[in-house]
Specification:
15 helices; Aspartate Aminotransferase, domain 2; alpha/beta; 12 strands; three-stranded antiparallel β-sheet; Aspartate Aminotransferase, domain 1; 2 domains; binds pyridoxal-5'-phosphate; seven-stranded mixed β-sheet; globular
Length: 403
């Protein structure tokens, strides 16, 4: 039987797919690409990844895996030596006692959060999210047909507190996702407050995902902290979503992990086994080298981020209408640009970001993409020279708009 174009109905995406937005950060990347192809010298402060290469010893481990033909399927949960390396790393750094059965290797932190959320929530369940937060959290909740309960943190300069969490808990709340250091705000929750937040969540029957993607990128006097440092009772309700992407400049390798209650992780593994199957075998070997060998590259990157922030934040504060606090972790500045918007006649942060991109070739991300109007997210995972040039261009825009 032949089919004609007219007898076949047009493709209609599922309701679930229609509800899922293309990442707004991905949309910015596409716009910047277009400008570059037109010969514009674009400065990218939109990037959410280290501007450093993956360290050589990690690449060598991957090359060796290839030479040894380590190129076949692995178990869905990841290879045993990597699961052990992940547990050893967290246990030795934070005094926990995770065992490999509590660990699933995933394809980056994002997939870990995706699998863990889908393993937990049913349609209609409510999920507390800090607002502003990373763009993927609400989308993942929507994909699971859950409802987002935003916990607004603007009043405390984006520091989540136990009090705020307590006030936001609803009868249908099942999960809270916490992200410290935070993308987009660069805020770090101090260990005592972090423990109180988890206590409040657990007392109220919530489960917790602790997104520790930027775990090691914390600027003193703030402290590196993990859910792994909690008591075993509290840890029994918390799943850590870890990632090697930022820590070891391995964004393209797609390796992360979920670590937490065995029942929860078992469900994560089940979902993994029916979707991605497992993280790439070669990347898993590289991840063992990353976690078990020298950690010097992490220190070097952190020192460089600090050096850039030390120049960048004071420079931003010299721009009329911008107020920017010091980042405490990650590699993002999150300036308040409400004054700049008023001075320059922008109704929204998206308008400001679009003008900066299209007229001045500076890629930024509007705060509204993360749920906070009146802010911009500026990544300093770019060279100091590029950051300096970007500040000049921002000043130029302000001067031009004032004319
Ligand atoms: C807050 C946060 N969590 C998780 C991720 C996921 O990173 P990956 O999937 O590369 O590990 C990112 C990436 O930008 C992030 O910013």
């Amino acid at each position: 039987m032949s089919t004609t174009a007219s007898s076949v109905s047009a493709f209609t995406a599922s309701t679930r797919a229609q509800m899922t937005k293309l990442s707004s950060t991905a949309a910015v990347v596409m716009a910047a690409e277009k400008l570059r192809s037109q010969g514009v010298k674009v400065i990218d402060l939109g990037v959410g990844e280290p501007d450093f290469p993956t360290p050589d010893h990690i690449k060598d481990a991957a090359k060796q895996a290839l030479d040894e033909n380590f190129t076949k399927y692995t178990s869905a949960s990841g290879i045993a030596p990597l699961r052990k390396a992940i547990c050893d790393y967290m246990n030795s750094n934070f005094g926990s006692d995770y065992i490999p059965e509590q660990c699933c290797v995933v394809l980056g932190g994002k997939q870990g959060i995706f699998n863990a959320t889908l393993a937990l929530i049913d349609p209609g369940d409510e999920v507390l999210l800090e607002n502003p937060c990373w763009v993927s959290f609400p989308e993942i909740v929507h994909f699971g047909e859950g409802k987002v309960i935003p916990v607004d943190t603007e009043s405390t300069d984006f520091h989540l507190t136990a009090e705020m969490v307590k006030a936001a808990i609803t009868p249908k709340a099942k999960l809270i996702i916490i992200n410290s250091p935070s993308n987009p705000t660069g805020r770090v929750i101090d260990p005592a407050e972090y423990r109180k937040i988890i206590e409040v969540a657990v007392e109220n029957g919530l489960w917790v995902i602790s997104d520790e993607c930027y775990l090691q990128f914390v600027y003193p006097p703030h402290e590196v902290n993990s859910a792994a440092a909690l008591t075993p009772e509290l840890r029994s309700r918390v799943l850590i979503a870890g990632s090697l992407s930022k820590t070891y400049a391995m964004t393209g390798w797609r390796v992360g992990f979920t670590l937490g209650p065995q029942d929860w992780v078992t469900e994560v593994i089940k979902i993994q086994s029916q979707s991605a199957t497992h993280a790439a075998s070669i990347a898993q070997k590289a991840a063992i080298a990353a976690l078990t060998q020298s950690q010097q590259s992490v220190k070097t990157m952190l020192a460089e981020y600090q050096r850039r922030a030390d120049w960048f934040i004071p420079a931003l504060n010299t721009v009329s209408g911008i107020k920017c606090g010091k980042p405490e972790g990650a590699f993002y500045a999150f300036p308040n640009i409400k004054g700049l918007m008023a001075n320059c006649g922008f109704a929204t942060s998206k308008e400001a970001a679009d003008e900066l991109l299209l007229k001045y070739g500076v890629v930024t991300t509007a705060g509204s993409a993360f749920g906070a109007e009146g802010y911009l997210r500026l990544s300093y995972a770019n060279s100091l020279a590029a950051i300096q040039e970007a500040v000049e261009r921002i000043k130029q825009m302000v001067a031009d708009r004032a004319k």
